[in-house]
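Hi there, hope your week has been kind to you so far. Thanks so much in advance, here it is:
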Amino acid sequence: MEHEKLLDGTNLQIITALQEHARLSFVELGRRIGLTPPAIAERVRKLEEAGIITGYHAHISLPGLGLNLLALMWLRIPADQYGPVLDLARRLPEVLECHHVTGEDAFVLKIAVTSVVHLEQLIKQFSPYGQTNSTLILSSPVVKEVVTWRPE
């Protein structure tokens, strides 16, 4: 209920603007939205306290870091192996995301690697826990960096 009160039109504009340009000053944000900097600061503070805004991030080019290949790895593992697999996924910097999913597979990992050989090394690290299946991502025609969902 409290979140619904915070998601008025003005706060949704603030959220969208900060997703597009996280380094906007409150002065610039206020100019764009039509509020004073203190009013913007108060609204942003409330959005942060409510856990709606959880941080501000730099977007990094994976190819710029030499990570030229993206892959998805499906893991079909027994439930007693979830803990060790999650520990491994957290430790490996190549694992960008780990999703617990429905169906026969337990997890789907999004992985960034330098080469197919590098991907094979990661597969070997997860193989002892159960079955793996990997797919290279050729392109990502839809990537939404800005959440535009609006409550009804």
The mean pLDDT is 94.
